[in-house]
């Protein structure tokens, strides 16, 4: 039914093969257009889009230095302490009873 085609990448100008199995996949998914970019340019574009959106990669959280209210150990927390509530290190935080509002 499908035959391999040679297409030209609109990004880099290189020729690439659009195989019969890829064409079949496109048809099954309902895609009506042939790919305009070679696999390398598609991958580079996808990686660039993921970096712009933060897709898959979480941005590094800003951490704030604090002194644990329970044990006095220096630690960091992922929020800016306001000073009106105690702040605990990881070890001391877990056993603290929580207020249920």
Cα gyration radius (Å) = 26 Å
Q: Number of DSSP helices?
A: 3
- From the helix content, strand content and strand pairing, which structural class follows? alpha+beta
Q: What form results from the Cα inertia axes?
A: rod-shaped
Average pLDDT level: 85
Secondary structure: number of strands:
4
What is the end-to-end distance? 65 Å
| Major beta sheet, strand line-up | 1-2
Domain Probable zinc-binding: 3-49
Protein name: Zinc-binding protein
Domain CxxC-x17-CxxC: 61-96
Organism: Heliobacterium mobile (Heliobacillus mobilis)
Provide structural commentary.
Helix content is about 30%, strand content about 15%. The protein has about 100 residues and is α+β, with helices and mostly antiparallel strands. It folds into two domains: about 5-55, no CATH class; about 60-100, no CATH class. Strand 3 and strand 4 form a beta hairpin. The longest helix is centred in the middle third of the chain and has 15 residues, at about 40-55. The protein is rod-shaped. The mean pLDDT is about 85. It holds the Pfam family zf_Tbcl. This is Zinc-binding protein.
How would you sum up this structure in a few lines?
The chain is of the alpha+beta class and 101 residues long. The chain has helices at residues 20-29, 39-53, 90-93, and strands spanning 5-8, 15-18, 64-67, 74-77.
List the helices and strands and how they pair.
Blueprint (H helix, E strand, L loop, with lengths): L4 E4 L6 E4 L1 H10 L9 H15 L10 E4 L6 E4 L12 H4 L8
Antiparallel strand pairs: 1-2, 3-4
Organism: Heliobacterium mobile
Protein name: Zinc-binding protein
